[in-house]
Amino acid sequence: MPEIFPVFDVPEIPAQEVGTQRYYESMLFDFNIGDFVRDGSNKVVRCDGKTAWLQWCVKTVLTQRFSCLAYNSDIGTELEEAFAETDRQAAQSSLERTITEALLADPAGRTQCVKNFSFAWGADHVDVSFEVTGVEGSTEQLSIELKGG
Questions:
Q1: CA 86/CA 89 separation, integer angstroms
Q2: At the top level of its lineage, which domain of life is listed (predicted)?
């Protein structure tokens, strides 16, 4: 009597390396105009993974935490609370803390370290510069203008 269940050897599936690609491509965003960059045929321009990660860093710093229901509580910074501090030293300390926490909470795990903060205060803003190190070991300098200072 023939078997009703087929019998066959299970093929061996080669193991894939986990985490070989940490930075993924994305669409190039221009923060000055507030829109995606387009080419001559009006198609959105793609950027490499490292540029996409740096764009994510800038976007995360500029996003107020808890202001957008689509994001979980790890996304964004507490800029309003930092600017409400009584003096600049306290505000700088708060900005450094909230930016570091936000960037290290990267859901994709691309950020390894945030350090070397510097601040330049204007009448209605503060320019914050810092170094961010990715998991691949490369360090990039970011400078962001924060309104409300």
A1: 9
A2: Bacteria
